[in-house]
TrEMBL record:
Protein EC: 4.1.1.37
Name of the molecule in the record: Uroporphyrinogen decarboxylase
Keywords annotated in UniProt: Cytoplasm, Decarboxylase, Lyase, Porphyrin biosynthesis
Biological process, per Gene Ontology: protoporphyrinogen IX biosynthetic process
Pfam families reported in the protein's UniProt record: URO-D
Natural source organism: Agrocybe pediades
Localization, UniProt: Cytoplasm
SUPFAM superfamilies referenced in this protein's UniProt entry, alphabetically: UROD/MetE-like (SSF51726)
Record's subunit section: Homodimer.
Enzyme class: lyase
PANTHER family in the cross-refs: METHYLTETRAHYDROFOLATE:HOMOCYSTEINE METHYLTRANSFERASE RELATED (PTHR21091), UROPORPHYRINOGEN DECARBOXYLASE (PTHR21091:SF169)
UniProt pathway annotation: Porphyrin-containing compound metabolism; protoporphyrin-IX biosynthesis; coproporphyrinogen-III from 5-aminolevulinate: step 4/4
InterPro entries hit by this protein: UROD/MetE-like_sf (IPR038071), Uroporphyrinogen_deCO2ase_HemE (IPR006361), Uroporphyrinogen_deCOase (IPR000257)
Length: 361
């Protein structure tokens, strides 16, 4: 399907803000928007395993559309329901979700890299995501843009070695320090799969791409610069080059390097992304000071404020809006990380309503 066959987009607020335009109000969406806080999501999951949902385009489409139906007119973007760990799966690793991610056979030493697929055909391995994206674009009927995404190489590398989540990332960091060249080679190999995957998502209908470096903040500034940053730049440069070469839409790209707020100015100047996401431990005024008008910003309310009641949510959104609106440049309202499962969906509705109210002032 070509992009000309999709329904015309009725709300382009997100895309305009991502390109740095000062919009009439901030577009708003939240990370993990299609997720466990929604009763309709939990209903689907009662009879379907997590990765089964990811691999079944009709189910992934349904779950992606659930928050758009519930918050119609309030939310300005959809993000395809999938998981960052489909890339390690495509590379030949087994990943289970129970409830968090678990790799039964993680990479222990660089010799284990030989177990990975030598060549990754993303169409064959991840075509289910592409089909879900195309179906979702049709299902959205142009109401809001559709975001595609992948995990950043460092974050994926850490999961592949740790075998799941970790508080210390001791095993993954041991690789960086003990086997630096082998680590760089694996990181680049992951990055190449991410490039193919993201280009495939645009081909399928994604209108903005986000790269999640969830564990960026676990690295020292030096190690982030040596191990993570080169792969992030590799992705932005090669995705943009490929989109141009293949005459595909040149969609905006967002980087969310959680916890690496010290690097915002450097990333704005050098990483090649249109938008930088920020978490809640940096003030929006400071973030804008660091990046100037070089990139749009996305963020950044603490997700836990959503448990604090309507008054707390309103006060936090008001502060956030004042902070972002104090400088020039595009801004996309969001949380500083993903929404968590215990949030009342009506409190998220209030968050959206408050963003509409205060970002338009």
């Amino acid at each position: 399907m070509t992009t000309t066959e999709f329904p015309p987009l009725k709300n382009d607020l997100l895309l305009r803000a991502a390109k740095g335009e000062h919009t009439e109000r901030a577009p708003v969406w939240v990370m993990r928007q299609a997720g466990r806080y929604l009763p309709e999501f939990r209903k689907v999951r009662e009879s379907h395993e997590f990765f089964e949902v990811c691999r079944t385009p009709a189910l992934a489409t349904e779950i992606t559309l659930q928050p758009i139906r519930r918050y119609s007119g309030l939310v300005d973007a959809s993000i395809i329901f999938s998981d960052i760990l489909v890339v390690p799966q495509a590379m030949g690793m087994e990943v289970l979700m129970n409830p968090g991610p678990h790799f039964p056979d993680p990479l222990v030493t660089p010799a284990d890299v030989s177990k990975l697929n030598k060549v990754v055909d993303v169409e064959k391995e991840l075509g289910y995501v592409f089909r879900a994206i195309t179906q979702t674009r049709m299902g959205l009927n142009g109401e809001v843009p559709l975001i595609g995404f992948c995990g950043a190489p460092w974050t994926l590398f850490a999961y592949m070695i740790e075998g799941g989540g970790s508080k210390t990332l001791q095993k993954a960091k041991t690789w960086l320090f003990k086997y630096p060249e082998e680590s760089k080679a694996l990181l680049l190999r992951i990055a190449d799969v991410c490039v193919d995957y993201l280009v495939g998502q645009v081909k399928a209908g994604a209108q903005l791409l986000q790269v999640f470096d969830s564990w960026a903040g676990e690295l020292s500034p030096y190690d982030f610069n040596v191990f993570s940053f080169p792969t992030l730049k590799h992705i932005s440069e090669n995705v943009k080059r490929r989109l141009k070469e293949e005459k595909l839409p040149e969609v905006p790209m967002t980087l969310f390097a959680k916890g690496a707020n010290y690097a915002l100015g450097f990333l704005a100047e050098n990483a090649g992304y249109d938008v930088l996401g920020i978490d809640w431990v940096i003030d929006p005024v400071e973030a804008r000071r660091q990046v100037g008008e070089k990139v749009a910003l996305q963020g950044n309310m603490d997700p836990n404020v959503l448990y604090g009641g309507r008054d707390a949510i309103e006060a936090a959104v008001k502060r956030m809006c004042e902070g972002f609106r104090s400088g020039k440049g595009g801004w996309i309202a969001n949380l500083g990380h993903g929404i968590t499962p215990g949030v009342d969906p009506e409190d998220l509705r209030w968050f959206f309503e408050c963003v509409h109210k205060y970002s338009a002032l």
